[in-house]
Amino acid sequence: MATSTSSSFTTIGIVGTGAMGRGIAQLAAQAGLDVRLFDLKQGAVDDARAFIENHWQRGVQKGRLSSQQADAFSARLAKADELQALAGCDIVVEAIVENLDAKQALFSDLEAIVDTAAVLATNTSSLPVTRIAAGCRYPERVIGFHFFNPVPLMKIVEVIPGLRTRDDITERVTALGDAMGHFTARATDTPGFLVNHAGRAFGTEALRILGESVADPATIDRIMVDQGGFKMGPFTLLDLTGLDVSHAVMESIYHQFFEEPRFRPSPLTRQRLDAGLLGRKTGEGFYRYVEGQQQRPAELEIPEADARPVWISQDDPESAALLARLVTDAGWVLEEDDAPSPHALCLLTPLGEDATACAHRLGLDAWRCVAVDMLAGLDRRRSLMTTPATDPDYVNAAARLLNHDGTPVSILQDSNGFVLQRIVACIVNVGAEIAQQRVAEPATIDRAVELGLGYPQGPLAMGDHYGVRRILTILERMLAATGDPRYRPSPWLRRRAALGLSLTQA
Ligand SMILES: NC(=O)c1ccc[n+]([C@@H]2O[C@H](COP(=O)([O-])OP(=O)(O)OC[C@H]3O[C@@H](n4cnc5c(N)ncnc54)[C@H](O)[C@@H]3O)[C@@H](O)[C@H]2O)c1
């Protein structure tokens, strides 16, 4: 725990001591600042103080903190009975209700109270910092200081200067975030700032996949966890956050970007919101919850199937070699001629293309074609995709073959790009566009997404990991097949793919 400050602030005012304000207060006291807490609601400050002190006491019991430290931290927390008591603060952070008028009114009131040199910081997650500042006499001292919930555990804070914020204030607030022990991600004042902007693709593309009936929520979640390495699938995450929050964020960011198709929300969540299927908090969302336990459908049972000769497309030699090894390991006959024999099972390895288009392009009979997602290899789960004409016996044979060593198999309806390919390509593309718009430095984008969203890698590193050219191919084919500008590749991605450069190359 940080115990002393290296920032230039000594006294911080916190207005609004709810979920966020109390966390910010805790970190500030730990960083050595004197903290003054104000809330309009009777008893709210006392609740917040008790909550924070209780946290420190638990730290003492667990040996993470000495009782002297806990006492010193507590001595730094003071209650402000009225706003006027914040007069001596050199920075005030507001964490009140998410409402523009309320925040502008508060900052106007504060301008009449604090010194002209004092900084006014907002913890808003969705309102433009520049717009909040526009209500102030001195907009140059207003800045976004955006923490994540729960504040002490989410080790990141976004520092967002408005268009008129002075550079020295951005520097000082960045130093304060550092002193509070968090990674400070400098971002421009754009909708969703950095982290909530970068998080748009995961849920919206999963919802499109669901909307196209490619797979059910549990299948999509399993693929993203097992093949994508995500801690949580998109539907588990939507259920955890609650659709009252996440649908509102999806709509807000989409409209703030003037209907940018990459952020287009889904009618599915609007309707589920109307039905009260908010997620875990209402006992039912995309899953049902019984005594807090998510009810998941069982894994697919793979029926018995006789071995057949197997022919593998050579679209991607590396993928073909991996599949060939699997066929011989399973003891099935591998066909190595240019064309399959009349009854061979044909395995295809498309990127961004559906199984139908791939079979057609290769001049194969669709009824015996099954596509396998090779983007993440074959290690933890195997995703198969069928054409509308694929014979169920051939689907079973493919599933049996891919499951021969017990690795779970998911079967998808035909889709331009499998589940993993689509969601990963959209995450990388949104991250690339954030870099293109210079919302933040490439390294900041990646670190902020790891810390703020818990993804296995930041979007740019993820693109490098899967191959920049492959991601571009997925997007180009999805765009060509659907005509949906949602999939248009960012110039950042196109240029780096053309030049063979890393996506982290500025
Ligand atoms: N909860 C999150 O996950 C999260 C994450 C990041 C940012 N934020 C942002 O932080 C802010 C606070 O969110 P929260 O979740 O802590 O809310 P909250 O409802 O838990 O707490 C808000 C507190 O502000 C007080 N308040 C409201 N209006 C006030 C006013 N005019 N003056 C003084 N006190 C006032 C309320 O009494 C309440 O105690 C919002 O802007 C929100 O968008 C929230």
TrEMBL record:
<protein>
    <submittedName>
        <fullName>3-hydroxyacyl-CoA dehydrogenase</fullName>
    </submittedName>
</protein>
<keyword id="KW-0560">Oxidoreductase</keyword>
<dbReference type="InterPro" id="IPR036291">
    <property type="entry name" value="NAD(P)-bd_dom_sf"/>
</dbReference>
<dbReference type="InterPro" id="IPR006108">
    <property type="entry name" value="3HC_DH_C"/>
</dbReference>
<feature type="domain" description="3-hydroxyacyl-CoA dehydrogenase C-terminal">
    <location>
        <begin position="192"/>
        <end position="289"/>
    </location>
</feature>
<dbReference type="InterPro" id="IPR006176">
    <property type="entry name" value="3-OHacyl-CoA_DH_NAD-bd"/>
</dbReference>
<feature type="domain" description="3-hydroxyacyl-CoA dehydrogenase C-terminal">
    <location>
        <begin position="417"/>
        <end position="500"/>
    </location>
</feature>
<feature type="domain" description="3-hydroxyacyl-CoA dehydrogenase NAD binding">
    <location>
        <begin position="11"/>
        <end position="187"/>
    </location>
</feature>
<dbReference type="InterPro" id="IPR008927">
    <property type="entry name" value="6-PGluconate_DH-like_C_sf"/>
</dbReference>
<dbReference type="InterPro" id="IPR013328">
    <property type="entry name" value="6PGD_dom2"/>
</dbReference>
<dbReference type="Pfam" id="PF02737">
    <property type="entry name" value="3HCDH_N"/>
</dbReference>
<dbReference type="Pfam" id="PF00725">
    <property type="entry name" value="3HCDH"/>
</dbReference>
